[in-house]
Amino acid sequence: MKIFKDGITVGAHPALFLPKYGTLVIADLHIGYESSLGQKGVFLPQNSYTAIRNRIEELLRATGAKKLAILGDLKHEFGKPSPQEWVEVKDLLETLGAMGVETHVVRGNHDNYVIAILSRYGVHLHEHFLMMDHIVLTHGHLEMDLPENAKVILIGHEHPAVSSLDSSGARYKFKCFLVGKCRGKRLVVLPAFSPLSAGSGINEIDREDLLSPYLRKSDIDEFVPLAVEDGIGIFRFPPIGVMRRIRKGDGANGQGRNQYI
Ligand SMILES: [Mn+2]
């Protein structure tokens, strides 16, 4: 599905492909999330990294992309990488190197100690943003002055999802892209690539609880969620403002429960 002039979705995956630039774009891998949860007493099987790596390989092969742009939060821990993170980040970079892929990482708010590892593997690290003609690729946690010729902004950070109720009252949540406008430019928010992140239901949270300043300064009601669900497909929901009104209309008689599912 075409999201903007030079950007298309890849199947029902949380990734964008820019054919003109031969570049696959993903965001928010949060490698090492399991060990961080483990320290809090929540123990998950440590297999999300394998799923992440396999999916990246599959998407690179499917698209024929020679470049990979990671829009920040490659790893999870804010501080020094945990042993799990070291092993997994190194393995990912070695895998990409062996595939001959040129990898670019734009720094996210979780990526504090990542530079030392990246430079050893020839990865291009971008402190603030990466530009491809008129397209800005950035993490989205900090607002910055963008070049005048910027027409499209791609961000991560928000981990967007959209939630919906079916006629029985069951609640479903889907990871989604968010597509809208920010200060006259096209803004596309990518869903988190991490399979452990269910995402934050953008139609349920208050505007001031949005994480990214780009979204807080936009009219979030006008944004259109494009849900990506493995094995099901990609589907367009009504704009967030309509979704919010539907939720507010949820009454005891069930009126207003939406039919978008
Ligand atoms: Mn982030």
UniProtKB/TrEMBL annotation:
<dbReference type="InterPro" id="IPR004843">
    <property type="entry name" value="Calcineurin-like_PHP"/>
</dbReference>
<dbReference type="InterPro" id="IPR024173">
    <property type="entry name" value="Pesterase_MJ0037-like"/>
</dbReference>
<dbReference type="GO" id="GO:0016787">
    <property type="term" value="F:hydrolase activity"/>
</dbReference>
<dbReference type="InterPro" id="IPR004376">
    <property type="entry name" value="Pesterase_MJ0037"/>
</dbReference>
<protein>
    <submittedName>
        <fullName>ICC-like protein phosphoesterase</fullName>
    </submittedName>
</protein>
<feature type="domain" description="Calcineurin-like phosphoesterase">
    <location>
        <begin position="24"/>
        <end position="161"/>
    </location>
</feature>
<dbReference type="Pfam" id="PF00149">
    <property type="entry name" value="Metallophos"/>
</dbReference>
<dbReference type="InterPro" id="IPR029052">
    <property type="entry name" value="Metallo-depent_PP-like"/>
</dbReference>
